[in-house]
Amino acid sequence: MRRIVAHPLSLVLLFSALAFGAAGCTEKPAAGPSGDGAAAGTPARTASSGEKVTVYLLPKKKGVAYFSSCADGARKAADELGNVELVYDGPTDGSPEKAAAMVEQWTLKKADVIAVAPNDPNVLAPAMQAARAKGTHVITWDADGVPDSRELFVNQATAEKIGYALVDTMAKDLGGENASGKVAIITATLTAANQNEWIKHMKERLKKYPKLELVTIKPSEEDQKLAFQVAQDLMKTYPDLKGIFGISSVAFPGAAEAVKQAGKSGKVLVTGLSTPNNMKTYVEDGTVKSVVLWNTQDLGYLTIRVAEALATGKLKTGATAFEAGRLGSKKIAGDNVLLGDILVFNKDNINNYNF
């Protein structure tokens, strides 16, 4: 169990909130495009025409190729818009407690928008809720948070689409509808809300392939070396293992390297989610047949477009579509802005992509 230690900034926010409440504030909470109310406090700020919009982009873990690619797309959107001051930062060890402390710091700096990819939604929720109470817009991207901690979720694709695509790809590469054998999942962390949703739909989809048996789910803590070790252990524990799903951008290459070094390329199939640049060598040498993902640069780009529109009041309550610059019109389903495109990279097309 993760022990949560109060950060000094948390105490500052707590005392500020208590003082604010004691003063008898009666303002209504801010309402996002979905109509949900933020925690009672200052209404969310709206930037005036020509005013700079400060957006803080928080990844689950800084230094990971997946999130670096998202940041590249975010910078392109900021440059294109011209009125966005973008800060990209996050914990290099993936610590949700450190991420929460960053949200608290940015709130004190009166950020216009904080865009969070939460590693542990429950740990980050208090800081995100406090930010909203202070008038900062808070959105999530890549992974969702506790619903009342954010206004919108910039979602790369529905959890169902991702979960189904992972299973269908593995089954196809193992022989189609008659695919058989034991398979395992290496996830990021057991508290990663988005990956737990994907796993739920993966289990549903596996019913379509009754000869595929899911034997275990193991975390890799967003650490490629640990994913490598976990994959080695899985192959020892299940000598007849046929497939490994690596469902984070570091779990997948870690598992692929373990299979390659074990001399089991072609015998133990690895598939999952990662950037094409991370997986090209494994696709070319036959360790991996297919890589499932979305355009990570587009995800970062869309996140900044949404953040700017929210901060300037251009994104209105009840909208069902959003004009996202070069991406065109994107669907809004409830409080989810959907990027919506799953990509499958293989030997035929992987060299056409560079991210």
TrEMBL record:
<dbReference type="GO" id="GO:0043190">
    <property type="term" value="C:ATP-binding cassette (ABC) transporter complex"/>
</dbReference>
<dbReference type="InterPro" id="IPR030159">
    <property type="entry name" value="LsrB"/>
</dbReference>
<feature type="domain" description="Periplasmic binding protein">
    <location>
        <begin position="55"/>
        <end position="314"/>
    </location>
</feature>
<keyword id="KW-0574">Periplasm</keyword>
<dbReference type="Pfam" id="PF13407">
    <property type="entry name" value="Peripla_BP_4"/>
</dbReference>
<dbReference type="InterPro" id="IPR050555">
    <property type="entry name" value="Bact_Solute-Bind_Prot2"/>
</dbReference>
<dbReference type="InterPro" id="IPR028082">
    <property type="entry name" value="Peripla_BP_I"/>
</dbReference>
<comment type="subunit">
    <text>The complex is composed of two ATP-binding proteins (LsrA), two transmembrane proteins (LsrC and LsrD) and a solute-binding protein (LsrB).</text>
</comment>
<dbReference type="InterPro" id="IPR025997">
    <property type="entry name" value="SBP_2_dom"/>
</dbReference>
<dbReference type="GO" id="GO:0030288">
    <property type="term" value="C:outer membrane-bounded periplasmic space"/>
</dbReference>
<dbReference type="GO" id="GO:0030246">
    <property type="term" value="F:carbohydrate binding"/>
</dbReference>
<keyword id="KW-0732">Signal</keyword>
<comment type="function">
    <text>Part of the ABC transporter complex LsrABCD involved in autoinducer 2 (AI-2) import. Binds AI-2 and delivers it to the LsrC and LsrD permeases.</text>
</comment>
<feature type="signal peptide">
    <location>
        <begin position="1"/>
        <end position="21"/>
    </location>
</feature>
<protein>
    <recommendedName>
        <fullName>Autoinducer 2-binding protein LsrB</fullName>
    </recommendedName>
</protein>
